[in-house]
Every structure is written in structure tokens, then in C-alpha cells.
Specification:
Blueprint: E1 2-8, E2 22-24, E3 34-36, H1 61-68, E4 72-77, E5 81-87, E6 93-96, H2 98-101, E7 107-111, E8 118-126, E9 131-135, E10 161-166, E11 174-188, E12 194-201, E13 213-215, E14 221-230, E15 239-243, H3 244-254, E16 263-264, E17 267-271, E18 278-283, H4 288-292, E19 299-303, E20 306-307, H5 311-319, E21 326-333, E22 336-343, E23 345-346
Parallel strand pairs: 1-14
Antiparallel strand pairs: 1-3, 2-17, 4-5, 4-7, 5-6, 6-9, 7-8, 8-9, 10-11, 10-13, 11-12, 12-15, 13-14, 14-15, 16-23, 17-18, 18-19, 19-20, 19-21, 21-22
């Protein structure tokens, strides 16, 4: 049963001239495999490396769980795939991961403590952000819908409290806790494009947690649990969530069948050893960067005055722009610095080769 995108690997060698190529508008990494989940079992709690007993405020993790868990959803996608989600509004919209629903055409959900499955309809999906929206009839929910409040992923800092609720291995109602381990990560979407500004957390996330909410210390959604990095096929303390800023941008556009349009630069790039920029590893022929004069080997040092230290920064800078806008891209080439004006294009549905 498909339930969680995985990154497999051991220790990552630091200071590579060009690491695994990430893309600002194009990425050519291999698709991350999906881990299979076990059949549904009774609710449980998971052990975790970091187990803070309170959020630092007036509510304990237990209090937050009691208040918020009624808005967490167990999703059955097709005959075998399972995942998690959360109630977005009182109209019946449920947010989950695209990779939870991508190969199914029938869906049922169990919301909160309700044990009776109710049918759901897929009303929107966006592979580029790994987000999807299901919809249920609000009248079919026994105890009514309890939307979970959205927080602010842009206000997070490393060390902030995190709480994950979902159905790892089919164990519904599981809660784990930890901290924000890092911010500004880039992960790979189901269609191989980069997802910028992902949240890294050590809260235990396992197959089946996909699509479930990552909460802050006040019980507000700060991300959608999406991927883990593991060499064993299960949690190793490195989980990633799509930031709630992406939810706020994407969901209103796709919840009624719409499509998200994104800016496109058209380069592949990697990191420099000293994190002084992003090295262009390839330029899409005829793409915006190519037309503006960017070349393979250029080191991008800033975009619109924003300092670029890595390929992740390029992805984030392009993601913040709109198609048709101009971007000032400063590069170093053969010891000389120059600023090129790029007319950003509209990103295609799938990456092009660089």
C-alpha cells in the first residue's frame, strides 16, 4: 500500500562541487519510491527520539491531541493504498498528499474517532507540491467537521516544537512529537520538480503518515507530512513536511478543480563546496534562462538581490515569482560578474532535460 515517499541513503558526503542536481524550475532526479503500508490496526503511540512533554505554553501535547485529533483523517485510496489527511474547512475539504491518491479512483475516509468509512471525492491535485484535496459530504460526518487551524510556516525557527498526527502503518490516531530540525529544505515532488522550503523534523514519521498534519506547539498546521530519509525503510529521525505556506497557496486554487501555474527558469544546478552560490549544471534549450544568456558552469550568486548560497535557494527564489515576471539573475562566469534579466516562463507539467 502506497503511503510515504522515501529518500534512501547513508551519510551524505559534504562539500561536493556539484551534489545531486536540484532544479530551479527543472529537476532530473529519479522519482522517489513509495513505501508500502501495513493493514489498519488499532490506534497507538510511537516512541520518538525527542519527547517533550509540553509545548511550552498552557497546553500539553496530550491536550492538543484531544483538541485537534478530531480533524485528522485516515484515508483509504483504492483497494490497498492508505494515508492521512486533515480537515481543511467546514465544507468537507480534506488536504492530503498527491502521492497518497495519485493511482486511485475511489476513496473513503474515517474522520477523527469515527469508525464508519464515508465516501470521498478527489476534487483537486497538484503533483508539483505533492498536495491533493478530497471532499466529503459534511452531513455524513457523525460528529460534524472540525477543521484544524492553519499556522505560519514562515515564522518557524529551528528548535520549535512539532507534533505529528496520522496513521503510520495503518495505526490510526498516532501522535509523535519533536522539533523543527531545519528549514528551507528542498524535496522532490511526485512529478520530479523541487518542493522548496520544506520543513525538516525529528518527530517520528513513518509510512501511513503521508498527508497528515505537522503541528506547531499551539496545535496549528505548519506542514503536511510527506517524506522521510531512511536507509531502512522506516523513520530514522529525518522527516520532511510540505510547508503550510504551500497549502495556503495551492489548496484554494485546486479545491474546485483549478490548476496551479508556476514560474519557470529552466536550469539544473548544484551546490558549491563553500556554499557561495549555485552552479548551473545544465540549461534547457530554448527556455527562459537560455534566452537570457545563462550558461552551463555559471555560478548563480543572487536573484533579484536575494543572496543565493545553494541550489535550494534558487528553487525557493523562483517559486516565489510568477510566470511573465522578470528576474535579475547575477552570475559569476570566468571570474567576471554579470547580471542577466530573465523573462520567467510557465513551468511545464513535467521537467525537461537540461
Amino acid at each position: 500500500m502506497r503511503s510515504l515517499v522515501m529518500f534512501f541513503g547513508g551519510a551524505v558526503a559534504m562539500a561536493l562541487v556539484v551534489g545531486a542536481l536540484a532544479v530551479a524550475g527543472v529537476i532530473d532526479d529519479d522519482p522517489a519510491p513509495i513505501v508500502q503500508a501495513s493493514p489498519p490496526s488499532p490506534p497507538a503511540t510511537q516512541p520518538n527520539q525527542s519527547r517533550p512533554k509540553s509545548t511550552g505554553g498552557s497546553e500539553s501535547i496530550s491536550d492538543i491531541y484531544k483538541r485537534v485529533s478530531s480533524g485528522v483523517v485516515f484515508i483509504q485510496a483504492g483497494q490497498s493504498a492508505t494515508g492521512s489527511g486533515f480537515v481543511y474547512d467546514d465544507q468537507g475539504h480534506i488536504v492530503t498528499n498527491d502521492h497518497v491518491v495519485e493511482e486511485a479512483n475511489s476513496f473513503s475516509v474515517r474522520i477523527g474517532a469515527d469508525t464508519k468509512p464515508i465516501p470521498a471525492q478527489l476534487v483537486g491535485k497538484d503533483p508539483s507540491s505533492d498536495l491533493a484535496v478530497l471532499k466529503v459530504d459534511p452531513g455524513a460526518v457523525k460528529n460534524g467537521l472540525k477543521p484544524i487551524e492553519l499556522g505560519d510556516s514562515k515564522a518557524l525557527e529551528p528548535g520549535d516544537q512539532t507534533i505529528a498526527i496520522g496513521s503510520p502503518f495503518g495505526l490510526e490516531g498516532t501522535v509523535t512529537s519533536g522539533i523543527v530540525s531545519s528549514l528551507g529544505r528542498t524535496i522532490t515532488a511526485p512529478n520530479d520538480y523541487p518542493i522548496a522550503d520544506a520543513i525538516q523534523t525529528d518527530a517520528a514519521i513513518n509510512p501511513g503518515n503521508s498527508g497528515g498534519p505537522l503541528l506547531d506547539g499551539n496545535g496549528r498546521v505548519i506542514g503536511v507530512n510527506s517524506q522521510i530519509k531512511s536507509g531502512s525503510g522506516s523513520n530514522s529521525g529525518v522527516g520532511f513536511a510540505v510547508p503550510v505556506s504551500s497549502v495556503k497557496f495551492v489548496v484554494p486554487q485546486i479545491m474546485n478543480g483549478g490548476k496551479v501555474v508556476r514560474a519557470y527558469l529552466g536550469v539544473r544546478n548544484g551546490d558549491t563546496p563553500d556554499l557561495s552560490g549555485a552552479v548551473v549544471g545544465g540549461v534547457v534549450t530554448g527556455g527562459p534562462a537560455d534566452k537570457a544568456g545563462l550558461q552551463t558552469g555559471d555560478k548563480i550568486t543572487s536573484i533579484d538581490g536575494r543572496q543565493i548560497t545553494s541550489s535550494d535557494d534558487v528553487s525557493s527564489a523562483v517559486a516565489a515569482r510568477k510566470p511573465g515576471e522578470q528576474a535579475k539573475v547575477t552570475v559569476e562566469r570566468a571570474g567576471n560578474r554579470r547580471t542577466l534579466t530573465v523573462d520567467l516562463g510557465t513551468r511545464p507539467d513535467t521537467p525537461a532535460g537540461g
